Amino acid sequence: MALPLKYNLRNLVVRKGSTLATAFTIGLTVAVFLMVMALARGIDTTLSSSGEPLNVIVVREGSTAEMNSSVSREQFNDLRYLDGVVREGDQPLATAEIITLIYKPRKGMSQGSNVTVRGVGPTSFKLHSGFHIAQGRLFQAGLTEAVVSKRISERFQGLDIGDKFRIQTTDYTVVGIFESGGKAFESEIWVDVNSLASTTNRESFSSALLRVNDANALAALSKRITDDPKLHLKALSERTFYEDQQGIASGALKYLAGFITFIMSVGAAFAGMNTMYAAVARRTQEIGTLRVLGFGRVSILIAFLLESMAVALLGVVIGILLAMPLNFVSTGTSNWNTFSEIAFNFRVTWDLMLIAFAFGAVIGFVGSLLPSIRAARLRIVQALRA
Amino acid sequence: MRFAKLVLKNVLRNKLRTLLTVSSLIVSVFLIVSLATVLTEFERGSEESNPSRLMTRHSVSLAFLLPIADLQRIQSVKGVKAVMPFTWFGGIYKEEKNFFANFSADPRKLREIYPEMKMPDAEWQAFASDRMGAIVGRKLQILYGFTPGQRITLKSPIYNKDVEFVVRGVYTGGDEKTLFFSHEYLNELAPEWARDKAGLFAALANTPEDVPRIGQEVDAMFVNTDAPTKTESEREFAASFEAMTGGIKQFLYAIMAAITFSLLLVMGNTMAMTVRERTKEVGTLKAIGFKRHTIAGLFLGESILVAIVGAAIGIAGAVLIYRSIDLSLYIPNLVSFKPEPETLIGAFVLSILVGVVSVVYSTYRVTGLTIAEALRSTE
C-alpha cells in the first residue's frame, strides 16, 4: 500500500527552510551545468548557422580560415561563370570579399582582441541573408565608411556611429550598426570591398562566394573547383566551412561542464543525504506509527525516495530559472582558428533542460537512497520507542 | 581547554552528518582550487615572461607573414643581441585531437634567445646539424613517447603538406609542449605564398631597459612597407593572447561564485539543523549558568572546525592530485597546472568565512531564547 503523495508534500512544507536550501544547492549545480553548456551551444549555433547551405565558399588550398586565404581577380572571374552558379538576370550570384583584422581594446579595458573587417560588394548582401541595418545607414560604395555589428559596437571601444577607426593608414567612419540574425557576421565590421582593397594594397580577394541551386550542384561545383590543378583553390559548402571552426572552443567547454557538474553533483548529493538523514531521524516515531498502521517497508522506502526526488525536481526548476536570463546575455571570446573575436549569445535550449531534469532526478535518487533504506529498515518497536 | 573539548565532542556527536558535510566541503574546495588554478595558469605566460625578449609580428594580424629579409634589419638595431624567425606551422600529429604547438625557428639561436630551455650539448648539436631535425618538450615526450632518432610526420593544414621530421632532442624548461624545427627546412617545402617569410621574429635584447626603444625603432623601420610590424615585449605579447579569452574569465568567476554560494547553503542548512536540534540543550546550558556568548562560541567553534577540516583535506587533495597528474598535458594552451599558494590560502580563508556565516543566523535565534522557551522546544 502506497503512502499518499500529500504526506510527502506536507512534510516538505513543514521543514521549508531545509527543503529550500537543499533545492537551491541542486539548483545551483543545475544552473552551472546549464551555464557552461549554454556557452558551448552559443558558440556552436553561431558558427553553424553562419553558413548558408547553398553557398559555396572558395578559398586558397590549405586555408582553414578566410584570413590566410587568397583568390585572385582572374580566378574570381573564372569562378563566376562556372556551370552551376545561379544567375539573377545575366549577373551571376557571386561575390568576392576581403578580410582583414584590426586590434581594438574592449570597453573598460586596455587590452582587447582582433576584430574582423570584411570588405563586401553589392552581391554580398544577397548571399548573406539576414543582414539588416539596425541604426544609421549603410556605407556608400567607394567611400571609407563602415557599418559595425551591434555586438561588436557594444563590446569594443570607439565603434559607435560617428566614431573613426584606422585600418593601416586610412581612417574609416562608422555610419551604421547592423544585425545579421545571430550569425558569425555579428562579430564583424563591414566596409566596401574596393575601399578595403585600396586601403590594404591588396590585389587579390580573401575568398569568393557562389550561390548554387541545390545540394547536387553544390557537390559538383565544389569538386570541379577543388580538383582543378591550375586553380590551387578549395571549394566547400559555406555551412561546413563554419561548422569546422567550432570544435576547439566548444569541445573544451563540454569537458569543463562535465568535470564541474560531476563534482558539484557529488557535493549536492552529500548535502541531500544530510537533509534526508535528519528527516528520517526526526520522524522515527512517525515511521513506527505508519508501520503499525500497516504500511510496509517498501511503502516507506518509496515515500522517502519520492520526497527527495520532489526536492531535486524543485531544485532543477530553480536552476533553470536561474540560468534562463542567460539567453539574453551575449559574450565573446576568440575563435582560435581565425585569431579574431567571435561574439555570441548563451543558449539555454530545451534539450539541455531535459538533461538537467534527468540529472536532477539522479542526484535526488542517489542522495536519498541510503537514508530511505535506513527508514525502511527501522523496527517497529524501536521506532516507536525513539 | 574545556571549551575546545566540548566543541570537539559536539562535532563528533553525529558522525555521519559531520562526515557528509566535510565531504561536501572537500569536493567544493577542490573544485574552487581547480578553477582558480585555471585562471592563474591563463596568466602564467605574461607573469613569467622574459623581460629582455621581444616579439615582432605583422601589425594587422598574426595570420599575415613578414618577409624574412626583415631579420637582418632587426638584427642591426642597437641593443639587439639575437633575433630569429619563429613561424607557426600548425602541424597535426596523426589525429586532430593530438594538438600541440609547433614552430620553425633557428636551431642555433633558439638556445640563446630561450635560455630557459635545457638540453644536453650533444642534442643541441644534433638538432643544428640535421636539416630535418626537430626537438620536443618533455611533456610531448610523456604524451606521445617521442624519442631521439624517431621519425615523425606532421600534417599541416596551413601549408597543405605532410612533413617528416627526425627527433634530435628533448628539452626541459619553458613551454614543454612545443616542437621546434629548422626554419630553413620550412622554407624549402613552403608553397609560393609562404616562401622567404616568417610568422614572427623573436629577439633578445641586451638588457630589459633596451626593450621599449628597440620595439619603437623596429616598428618605425617597417611602417611604410607592405608589411608593417608590431613589436612588443614578450609580456605584452602574451597578455594580448590572454585578453583574447575575453568573456571566459568572468565566466569562470561566475561559476566559482555559484559553487561558493551552494557551499554556503549546504553548510548553512546542516548547521541550522544541528543548532535547532540542540535547542533544549541550550536551555539546560543557560540554566546551569552558561552565558549566551559562550554557547554561541560553541556553535561557531563547531562550524569553523568542520570548515577547517573540510578545507584542509580539499586543498591537500588538490595539491597532491595536481602534483601527480599534470593537467596541462591535457588542456591545450596551458603550459603548467600548479595551484599557487595564494589560491590555496584564498580557498582556506573562504571556507572559514563560509563556516562563520552559515552558523550565525540559527545561533542568533536559538541562543536568544529564554531558558523556559528553550526547554519547552519541541525540536
Structural notes for this entry:
The complex is a heterodimer of chains A (386) and B (379). In chain A, helix 2 runs antiparallel to helix 9 (247-282), helix 2 packs antiparallel against helix 12 (350-377) and helix 9 packs parallel to helix 12. Chain A has helices at 5-14, 16-50, 73-80, 124-127, 150-155, 193-199, 215-227, 238-243, 247-282, 284-292, 297-323, 350-377, 380-385; strands spanning 55-60, 87-88, 91-92, 94-105, 112-120, 132-136, 145-149, 164-167, 170-179, 188-192, 207-211, 233-237, 330-335, 340-345. Chain A is of the alpha+beta class. Chain B has 379 residues and is an alpha+beta fold. Chain B is built from 15 helices and 12 strands. The relative contact order of chain B is 0.18. The mean pLDDT of chain B is 90. Chains A and B meet through helix 2, strand 4, strand 5, helix 9 and strand 13 of A and helix 2, helix 10 and helix 11 of B.
Strand order of the largest sheet of chain B: 4-7-8-6-9-5-3-11-1-12
Number of helices of chain A: 13
Low-confidence regions of chain A: none
How many E strands of chain A? 14
Backbone shape of chain A? elongated
Q: Please state the structural category of chain B.
A: alpha+beta
Give the overall pLDDT of chain A as a whole number: 87
Largest interface: A-B, 60 and 55 residues
Q: Which percent bin holds the helix content of chain A?
A: 40-55%
Taking the alpha carbons of the first and last residues of chain B, their distance comes to 29 Å
Question: What number is the mean pLDDT of chain B?
Answer: 90
H and E order of chain A: HHEHEEEEHEEHEEEHEHEHHHHEEHH
Q: What share of residues are in beta strands of chain B?
A: 15-25%
Radius of gyration of chain A (Å)? 30 Å
Q: For the terminal residues of chain A, how far apart are their CA atoms?
A: 25 Å
- Structural class category of chain A: alpha+beta
